[in-house]
Design a protein that fits this description.
Oligomer: single chain
Mean pLDDT: 95
Shape: globular
Family: Belongs to the aldo/keto reductase family.
Structural class: alpha/beta
Protein name: Rho crystallin
Strand order of the largest sheet: 3-4-5-6-7-8-9-10
Low-confidence stretches: none
Pfam family, one: Aldo_ket_red
Distance between the termini: 32 Å
Order of helices and strands: EEEHEHEHEHEHEHEHHEHH
Radius of gyration: 19 Å
Organism: Engystomops pustulosus
GO molecular function: oxidoreductase activity; structural constituent of eye lens
């Protein structure tokens, strides 16, 4: 039985195959992230995924430090992912942004630091800068210059591994083909679920030794600011429910197992202690080739995160097929 709990990245570091996602819509209090992260570490998660723009780094950092202090885990066994927000992509802002996140977290280094999105907005501390008409103000640094600044953060010991998020094939190739490239991205973190299984992007990344990390694997948090409220609910998909009943597992466990068997690192998100625990209990069963085929057939290239406010950005990543 494939009970692989870690994947070796192209730089030699190991990433736990299940991460705990800490994003929550604005209507939820930030303190929820602290409590949920504590529970996650207690029940066995060793990969915590957060971001500056979530506004809860300090809360997540407190949870991590408490669980290190009480001996639940050790820093060398914990894998923390942070993200560079799109108003800090000009090279001189990259390291200060990373250092600010480390101060918020009160950690000395990150295990993984990724460019949150290839879409850049007006540099500065306003995360969503808008003009007098309420339109987002875009900016256009060469992403290769941003990447070089992130490489320097790795050389400085502030982060062990570096990667990207929400990049399409063309945007990844820009970095891979950059003259003088020092480090390849170790991962591309993208939306990934049974309705958007990212097969083509997955195959491309695999061919380049880049790990795909999937968010929204259980569907989305259905944040009204981002998500069409009429969109399908992953965990209510009849095929998923039927396979789950066959294995005496939850639909969420089957959805996670599906992507693990495809070689994807899965981010699972919940603030419910029971579900947080259930979502990591996926190492005691295997889906059959028939199960996998049925689940793969559900793909319809449907995105929850359509990022419509950004669709006019010259670097909008979702206009390409993959």
């Amino acid at each position: 039985m494939d009970l692989q709990t870690h994947i070796v990245l192209n730089d030699g570091h190991r990433i736990p195959v299940i991460g705990f996602g800490t994003y929550a819509p604005e209507k939820f209090p930030k303190t929820l992230a602290e409590e949920a992260t504590k529970v996650a570490i207690e029940v066995g998660y060793r990969h915590i995924d957060c971001a500056h723009v979530y506004g809860n780094e300090a809360d997540v950092g407190r949870a991590i430090r408490e669980k290190l202090a009480d001996g639940t885990t050790r820093r060398e066994d914990l894998f923390y992912t942070g993200k560079l927000w799109c108003t800090y992509q000009t090279p001189d802002l990259v390291r200060p942004a990373l250092e600010r996140s480390l101060r918020n977290l009160q950690l000395e280094f990150m295990d993984l630091f990724i460019i949150h999105t290839p879409l850049e907005m007006k540099p500065g501390d306003d995360p969503f800068p808008v003009d007098e008409n309420g339109q987002l103000i875009f900016h256009n640094t060469d992403i290769r210059d941003t990447w070089e600044a992130i490489e320097r953060c790795k050389d400085a010991g502030l982060v062990k591994s570096i990667g990207v998020s929400n990049f399409n094939r063309r945007q990844i190739e820009l970095i891979l083909n950059k003259p003088g490239l020092k480090y390849k991205p170790v991962c591309n973190q993208v939306e990934c679920h049974i309705y958007l299984n990212q097969r083509k992007l997955r195959d491309f990344c695999k061919s380049e030794g880049i790990v795909l990390v999937g968010y929204s694997v259980l569907g989305s948090s259905r944040d009204e600011n981002w998500i069409d409220q009429n969109s399908p609910v992953v965990l209510e998909e009849p095929v998923l429910v039927t396979i789950a009943e066959r294995h005496k597992k939850t639909p969420a466990q089957v959805a996670i197992r599906f992507f693990l068997q495809l070689g994807v690192v899965v981010l699972a998100k919940s603030f419910n202690p029971k579900r947080i625990k259930e979502n990591i209990e996926v190492f005691d069963f295997l889906l059959t080739p028939e199960d996998m085929k049925e689940l793969e057939a559900l793909n319809r290239n449907f995105r929850y995160v359509q990022a419509k406010r950004w669709k006019d950005h010259p670097k909008f990543p979702f206009a390409d097929e993959y």
